[in-house]
Amino acid sequence: MIPHSFLQDLLSRIDVVEVVGRYVQLKKGGANFMGLCPFHNEKSPSFSVSPTKQFYHCFGCGAHGTAINFLMEHAGLTFPEAVEELAQSVGLTVPQEPRAGGDARDAGQWKQAIGLVDRMKAASDYYKQTLKTSPNAIAYLKKRGLSGEVARDFALGYAPDGWQNLEAAFDDYQADALVEAGLVLVSEKTDAQSGAARRYDRFRDRIMFPIRNVRGQVIGFGGRVLDGGEPKYLNSPETPLFNKGSELYGLFEARLAIREKGFVLVVEGYMDVVALAQLGFPNAVATLGTACTPIHVQKLMRQTDTVVFSFDGDKAGRRAARRALDACLPHAADNRTIRFLFLPPEHDPDSYVRAFGTDAFGHQVEEALPLSQFLLNEIVADKPLDQPEGRAKALFEAKPLLAALPPNAFRTQVVHMLADRLGVPFGEVAALCGIDGAVQRAVRDAPEKAARRRVTGNEERALRNLVMYPGCAAVLGDEEGAALRYAARRELFDEVLTHIRALGAHADFRLLSEVLRNTANAPVYEEIFREILTYDENVRDLVLAPDTDGSVERYQDQTRVAGEELQAALAKLHYDALRERCDRLSRQSKLTSEETTEYADLLRQTADLRRRLAPVAARE
Predict the structure, then answer these.
(1) Is the pTM above the cut of 0.90?
(2) What is the CATH number of domain 251-367?
(3) 3-state secondary structure string across 66-123
(4) pLDDT band at 442, cuts 50/70/90?
(5) What is the pLDDT of the chain when averaged over all its residues?
(6) Domain 458-619, CATH number (from 1.10.860, 1.10.10, 3.30.1760, 1.10.150)
(7) Is a pLDDT exceeding 50 seen at residue 587?
(8) Across the strands, what pairs with 43?
(9) Contact 153, 253 (CB under 8 A)
(10) Which CATH number applies to 4-89?
(11) Residue 330 CA to chain centroid, in angstroms?
């Protein structure tokens, strides 16, 4: 776990304008910098980067965040990866706090992985140089129709035949790190002279495909034989750097094309990815010789809301598609599109494009089968639906698949489709599949859009001040705590205050926003973030952190004012709640003695609150 104090120090040292400026062309526009949004297509700049707030905000699509969030969204990095990249840029080392109940080995494994990066880069550079002087390897790539440009873009290389060629790349060929990186194998046989175990290169006489993470670091290799031989493809083993079940070949190279084209194309092999990039589909990626996993899908969904899987039409392709379907089900949100493309058995994407052209393949992509239809086909396949046995078997197989879907509108639509296909009432299908209550609750318990998206009136004002200036929470006493009892969304205040206390002296808007955007109530906070960021258009001297431009006194003054406004907002919330109770009692024809006492006490409290609120009302 990365300490909050380190995050605060990191955010105070980096400049969001400089970080964003590496990827977006920015021009000064008033107090901020403006550019074309990298998260959606636009012709006029609506993407604003504030040097005083150290935040970016797009007025077109609503994208916003700190430098950490920008790297996560634009480069597809995880939170620790984004923090590590920013820390390296300012010469900091990321410390690690032990997780509660976690494994103390995590930090050591992480440091070990970082230490292997240089080894992998050196090996990749060696393979690239070797390719340039290997006529057989060059001839093979040309036969497959690959150009020198695409080979360069994907850093293709060649591992020559022989047992210890990597000795030319590493002075310390006997180092354990080369074994840990998966570059060298240790034989059971020993050297006759030294008595040490013999070593040899893992990859020999193969075209080398470097596998890069989203930061562009080489973390593994895929090697393809030139002629005959088994296995046709050989991958790096599992290492502290590399895990096949979570990495995708070509994702680093495809990131910008994915955003530009609006979807990612998932294919089955390295060669498909490289060939498609050359043939007009640079937004293709591939799993690494393993089935598609939920982690793969999650990583893809960080890049785009539309995923198209392309599989060969043979039995193996169908099996791979089914595994991909299973991996996708938990991620089938209402705002996402997942489709499945099946090519004729005799073709893979590379051969299909070369045989029929780019437009024909593009048409195949557009006509790919939606997830809902593929799911339904799998449920009813090879079952006699005109017989009770067939329908019962379909419902039996549907149950775990439907249960894997989130309880959203999409799942409800799939249940309707299945009910129509089987000729069975919707409620019966839902009940038999064990999701009847979940479907109904998802619709019944979903809060109104306005309640989900924003909090109104005094609550909104109070929440906004707490998020903008966490330090103003210090003004809250017993009276304000009592007022929070009347908040319609009290759980939001409790959550924000809990995180402010956890952050302690390090709490400011930048750090608190990073924490809140990872909570279950993130949609509400996102709306508050947008409102705060639009202040820049009207309040030019707003300071959201004391160290962004040296305005410590101004930040403290604005925190003090925010605290006063917070107290006033909560007092007004308290006053409104008391007045509502007074009105209810006054409308009763007869009051009990207890109610009479309560009514008198309420009148006294409201009169006191009204006097306190009068100066605030006058200022407003």
Answers:
(1) no
(2) 3.40.1360.10
(3) CHHHHHHHHHCCCHHHHHHHHHHHCCCCCCCCCCCCCCCHHHHHHHHHHHHHHHHHHH
(4) very low
(5) 82
(6) 1.10.860
(7) yes
(8) none
(9) yes
(10) 3.90.580.10
(11) 15
